């Protein structure tokens, strides 16, 4: 059952890639998509400059956020854990809002870099508070507390400085709107983290059995946790920097995938990336086509699916 | 000489539970660690399995400091069955047992023909062959315990460290387990196990190590160790020692 799901997931993703190129404010027939890649074609601007980079971005961001979630869930050993839960996403959000509030005239193109710093600081803060030998429960609870703290700081800034914050609002909900080749180019170097994540598949299987068994099987549990969380922070930070925090993706995708293909990370990690890509492609497609030409942020779509899923998960967790 | 502790103190959060213990594990025997709750027997076992780092002193494996040995190499020598295990989600029995081969597989965890033969064999020995395709999360406590034991056996190490392996097992499976340990011992394995049942230890083990408050009180063969005075001193138990009518080993009967 495990490996048999992979071809279906790949087909579903390809189908959604094509759908994302075809549909939007203007529908473009399937046959004209390839023609739209040529300069001078009537659809060149829509396809090449607008939908193609955005579609690729949705695929990559979805895959990377889902992979980050799987890495975090893998080492925290809790299906409720994800970069959101650890406060990494909210750390990025707070840094960005802070930047926009106190430097209202500053260059908006610095926003990604600021978000990156914010998520790294949030991760280091978690590490500093918990230490390298902390229990997984402590890590998760501290992360939730920090995330709540950052969220309340964001709310406070929005109440105190309502005017300056308007720019931040759209970004904060997580959106692919207006993202193009420039943002895609910024994301590309971070793809190098993916092979490192896949390299961890075997030790992640063993840490799933508890630290005692993992150590007895020759795994350095603390080193693995550090490496895994560092990669997850890098993946999350780069995605949040470009699209804003797209909520629940890192939580839902790995969990759904585990139900689909089981818990072996050699299959789970690649399958999670496919499911994450599928979810964000779907979310962005619906967000763009539900009421054209008005667009909803994809982050709202993932939250509409993700929040009830999170609650359901919470209720059935003993 | 293979596994020994030297002035070992170890515990949790700066509190030593095992205090300045010098111990040499007799090779090729079945050794039981006995003692009341909180005496440090599990902690000592974990220190010998390098799960816990010593606060003071050292654990040696073949004359070398345990924590200086490459972890994958050591995993081919010592295997630990922990007292409690998390319930892994979405993992089949055969996959979990296969994880026991990790110290021998490459980075992607691919299973060789030889690995596969060992997995099949340990699943037969522990009586879980028919559970192979089931999810570990759907098993009963006793079945799960046997699956974890199979995983530990698949590690194929000369030393086995077991922390209360009979917990969650019904009586017949407990007896089966003790017979399996004897069989493995005859194949040359040294087995160190924490046990609660003194009579079980006396009947199936060659060497008993009795602990109290982080120290070793006494050790030796069941005949030499189990006395009325010891049970009174260590377990605060008024009991008589009789001879087991079948195995001829000492047996304690509570008064």
From TrEMBL, chain A:
This is Iron complex transport system permease protein. It is found in: Cell membrane. The chain crosses the membrane at residues 51-72, 84-102, 108-130, 137-160, 180-201, 226-247, 267-287, 294-315. Its main location: membrane. GO terms for molecular function: transmembrane transporter activity. Belongs to the binding-protein-dependent transport system permease family. FecCD subfamily. GO terms for cellular component: plasma membrane.
UniProtKB/TrEMBL annotation, chain B:
SUPFAM superfamilies: P-loop containing nucleoside triphosphate hydrolases (SSF52540). Residues 3-238 form the ABC transporter domain. The keyword Protein biosynthesis does not apply. InterPro entries: AAA+_ATPase, ABC_transporter-like_ATP-bd, ABC_transporter-like_CS, P-loop_NTPase, Siderophore_ABC-ATPase. Gene3D superfamilies: P-loop containing nucleotide triphosphate hydrolases. Pfam families: ABC_tran. Keywords: ATP-binding, Cell membrane, Ion transport, Iron, Iron transport, Membrane, Nucleotide-binding, Transport. It is found in: Cell membrane. GO terms for molecular function: ATP binding; ATP hydrolysis activity. It is a peripheral membrane protein. Its main location: membrane. One of its GO terms (biological process) is iron ion transport. GO terms for cellular component: plasma membrane. Belongs to the ABC transporter superfamily. This is Iron complex transport system ATP-binding protein.
């Amino acid at each position: 059952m495990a490996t048999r799901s992979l071809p279906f997931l790949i087909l579903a993703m390809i189908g959604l890639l094509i759908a994302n190129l075809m549909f939007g404010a203007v529908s473009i027939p399937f046959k004209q998509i390839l023609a739209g890649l040529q300069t001078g074609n009537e659809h060149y601007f829509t396809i090449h400059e607008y939908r193609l980079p955005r579609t690729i971005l949705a695929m990559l961001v979805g895959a990377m956020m889902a992979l980050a979630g799987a890495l975090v869930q893998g080492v925290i050993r809790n299906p409720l854990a994800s970069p959101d839960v650890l406060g990494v996403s909210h750390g990025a959000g707070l840094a960005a809002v802070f930047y926009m509030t106190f430097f209202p005239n500053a260059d908006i193109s610095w926003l990604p870099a600021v978000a990156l710093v914010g998520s790294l600081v949030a991760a280091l803060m978690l590490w500093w508070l918990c230490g390298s030998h902390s229990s997984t429960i402590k890590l998760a609870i501290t992360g939730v507390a920090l995330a709540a703290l950052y969220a309340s700081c964001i709310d406070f800034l929005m109440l105190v400085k309502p005017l300056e914050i308007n720019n931040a609002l759209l970004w904060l909900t997580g959106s692919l709107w207006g993202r193009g080749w420039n943002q895609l180019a910024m994301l590309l170097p971070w793809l190098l983290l993916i092979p490192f994540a896949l390299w961890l598949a075997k030790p992640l299987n063993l840490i799933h059995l508890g630290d005692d068994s993992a150590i007895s099987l020759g795994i350095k549990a603390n080193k693995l946790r550090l490496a895994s969380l560092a990669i997850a922070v890098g993946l999350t930070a780069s995605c949040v920097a470009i699209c804003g925090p797209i909520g629940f993706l890192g939580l839902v995708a790995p969990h759904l995938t585990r139900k689909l293909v089981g818990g072996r990370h050699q299959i789970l990690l690649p399958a999670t990336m496919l499911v994450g890509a599928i979810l964000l492609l779907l979310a962005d497609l619906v967000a763009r086509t539900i009421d054209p030409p008005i667009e909803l942020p994809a982050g709202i779509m993932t939250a509409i699916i993700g929040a009830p899923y999170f609650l359901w998960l919470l209720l059935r967790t003993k | 000489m293979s596994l020994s502790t030297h002035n070992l103190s170890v515990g949790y959060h700066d509190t030593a539970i095992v205090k300045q213990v010098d111990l040499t594990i007799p090779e090729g025997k079945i050794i039981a660690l006995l003692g009341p709750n909180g005496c440090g027997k599990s902690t000592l076992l974990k220190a010998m399995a390098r799960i816990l780092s010593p606060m003071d002193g050292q654990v040696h494996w073949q004359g070398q400091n345990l924590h200086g040995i490459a972890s994958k190499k050591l995993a081919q020598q010592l295997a630990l069955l922990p007292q409690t295990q998390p319930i892994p989600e979405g993992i089949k029995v055969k996959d979990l047992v296969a994880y026991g081969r990790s110290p021998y597989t490459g980075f992607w965890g691919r299973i060789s023909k030889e690995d596969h033969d060992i997995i099949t064999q340990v699943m037969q020995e522990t009586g879980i062959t028919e559970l192979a395709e089931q999810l570990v999360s759907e098993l009963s406590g006793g079945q799960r315990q046997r699956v974890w034991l199979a995983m530990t056996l698949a590690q194929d190490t000369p030393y086995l460290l077991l922390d209360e392996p009979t917990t969650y097992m019904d009586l017949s499976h407990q007896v089966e387990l003790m017979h399996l340990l004897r069989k493995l011992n005859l194949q040359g394995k040294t087995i160190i196990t924490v046990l609660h049942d003194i009579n079980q230890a006396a009947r199936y083990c060659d060497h008993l190590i009795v602990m109290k408050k982080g120290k070793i009180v006494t050790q030796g063969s069941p005949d030499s160790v189990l006395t009325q005075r010891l049970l009174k001193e260590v377990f605060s138990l008024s009991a008589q020692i009789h001879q087991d009518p079948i195995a001829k080993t000492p047996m304690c009967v509570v008064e």
